[in-house]
Every structure is written in structure tokens, then in C-alpha cells.
């Protein structure tokens, strides 16, 4: 058997292993039985109806949307300032500071969650959706910095210098010239941060207090077998939402690179 054939078999097996569980979600979401097993019992949409009529689920979704939206905006703002500073200026301990900003990328989330939990309790800060936002901003900011670094690095600096020559201030140049050019990267950063925050479980589990987020709610429902089909229906919608958000983020990322004349070195999709 040739190496190319082995690689093809490996690639197919890998894709099946990766995506087969996801493909099972809609199958069991429309299955009439409450037990997740074959053979299927028949076609139904009652699990989706039960999902839309669940008040506790609605509250969890509302909390998650507030957290994800706030985290995405705050993390992207921090990412803009950080990426601008890193790509435009030299300052003491630049490498060390950037390393600290990017550190949450390599730290286990359980360590981040436990550390934040201890610090917040020690300071007497009550756990709520705002403490979850704090944790999610911490883990989302490195992703926004990575995305926006690429956007800022691909800018043509001569455009900025031309604006200065024409009498524009630094702030007006940043607002009128630089921000529009990196706008696709900003949109991509917002969408990626929103997706990461919406799906995150560990930090939300430790810091949410009595305000459940969507992943925490899903985890709690697996104790009740009759609720599992509803979770399958919910999971189907979440997968579709995640695919749409990632596709839109990738579109804006590539659009930003093409707009600035940079080179695409890889992306999310």
C-alpha cells in the first residue's frame, strides 16, 4: 500500500472520528424516543418545541448572550490597543509584556478558573455574570490580539504618513484611516471572541454563581435522561450558529487581508 493511499485512509478516518458525533446531534434531535440509541423511534419536532418553551433555558441563553457580547466587545477593544502598540511602537520589555498578554492561550482553563475564583472570593466580590465576563475577557483577548496583529501588520504605513503630511492628528488618522482599513479584522475578532465566550464552560462553571450560562445549564441537564433529547435539539442549533459565526469571521478575515494587500498565511476554516 502506497504512502498516498495510507494518508487518504488516515484523513478519512480522522474526519469521520471528528465529525460523526456532530452529525448524530440532528439525528437524535428529531428522534421520537427519549433514549439515545438505535434503532430510531420515528420523526418528531417536539424536542425543539420543548426547548423553546423552557423558561430556565431562556434565562441561561440570555445570560450567555450578555456575557458573550460584552466579552467580545471588551476583548476586541483591548486587542485593538495591544495590536496597535505591538506593531507600531517599540517600548521596554515589549516581548515580556506581549508574552503575558498571550499567556492564557497556553494556560489550562481550570487553572485560570480556580485562580480567578480564589482572587474574587478573597476580594469579597460576589460571583455573577460580570465575573464571568471578566474571566472570558481574559481568555478571549489573546485571540483578538493574534487576529488584529495580522490586520495591523499588513497596513501600508505610507498611508498613515501621508495623513500626517496633510495635517491630520494622530487620533484623526487612527479614526479615519487605520480603523476602516482594519475593520474586517475587528469584525472577525468580535465574532471569534463571541463564539469562544458562548461555548466556554469551565470558567463559567466556577464564576457564574447562581446565574447559569448555557454550557453550565446543558451540563446540569445530563443528570435527567428525559432532558437529553432537548439538549440534542439545542446542540443542533448551537452547531449551526457556531458554523455560521466562524464562516462569517473567516470571510471578514480574508477580506481584510485582501483589502490591505497582505498575504494569507492561514485561517480558521
TrEMBL record:
**Domain ABC transmembrane type-1 as annotated: residue spans:** 61-249
Q: Name one GO biological process term.
A: transmembrane transport
A matching Pfam family: BPD_transp_1
Q: Name one GO cellular component term.
A: plasma membrane
Alphabetized, the UniProt keywords read: Cell membrane, Membrane, Transmembrane, Transmembrane helix, Transport
Q: Which PROSITE patterns match?
A: ABC_TM1 (PS50928)
**What CDD domains does the record tag this protein with?**
TM_PBP2 (cd06261)
Query: What family does this chain come from, according to its entry?
Result: Belongs to the binding-protein-dependent transport system permease family. CysTW subfamily.
> What protein does this entry describe?
Spermidine/putrescine transport system permease protein
Amino acid at each position: 500500500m502506497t504512502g498516498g493511499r495510507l494518508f487518504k485512509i488516515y484523513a478519512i478516518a480522522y474526519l469521520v472520528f471528528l465529525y460523526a458525533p456532530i452529525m448524530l446531534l440532528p439525528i437524535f434531535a428529531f428522534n421520537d424516543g427519549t433514549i439515545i440509541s438505535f434503532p430510531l423511534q420515528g420523526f418528531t419536532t417536539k424536542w425543539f418545541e420543548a426547548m423553546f418553551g423552557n423558561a430556565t433555558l431562556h434565562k441561561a441563553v440570555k445570560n450567555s448572550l450578555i456575557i458573550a457580547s460584552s466579552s467580545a466587545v471588551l476583548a476586541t477593544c483591548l486587542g485593538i490597543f495591544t495590536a496597535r502598540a505591538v506593531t507600531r511602537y517599540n517600548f521596554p520589555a515589549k516581548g515580556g509584556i506581549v508574552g503575558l498578554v498571550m499567556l492564557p492561550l497556553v494556560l489550562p482553563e481550570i487553572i485560570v478558573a480556580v485562580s480567578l475564583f480564589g482572587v474574587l472570593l478573597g476580594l469579597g466580590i460576589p460571583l455573577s455574570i460580570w465575573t464571568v465576563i471578566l474571566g472570558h475577557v481574559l481568555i478571549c483577548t489573546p485571540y483578538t490580539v493574534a487576529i488584529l496583529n495580522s490586520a495591523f501588520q499588513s497596513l501600508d504605513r505610507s498611508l498613515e504618513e501621508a495623513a500626517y503630511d496633510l495635517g491630520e492628528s494622530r487620533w484623526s488618522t487612527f479614526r479615519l484611516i487605520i480603523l476602516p482599513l482594519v475593520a474586517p479584522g475587528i469584525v472577525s475578532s468580535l465574532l471569534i471572541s463571541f463564539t469562544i465566550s458562548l461555548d466556554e464552560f469551565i470558567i463559567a462553571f466556577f464564576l457564574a454563581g447562581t446565574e447559569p450560562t448555557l454550557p453550565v445549564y446543558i451540563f446540569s441537564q445530563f443528570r435527567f435522561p428525559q432532558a437529553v433529547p432537548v439538549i440534542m435539539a439545542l446542540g443542533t442549533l448551537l452547531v449551526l450558529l457556531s458554523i455560521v459565526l466562524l464562516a462569517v469571521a473567516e470571510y471578514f478575515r480574508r477580506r481584510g487581508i485582501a483589502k490591505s494587500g497582505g498575504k494569507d498565511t492561514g485561517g480558521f476554516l
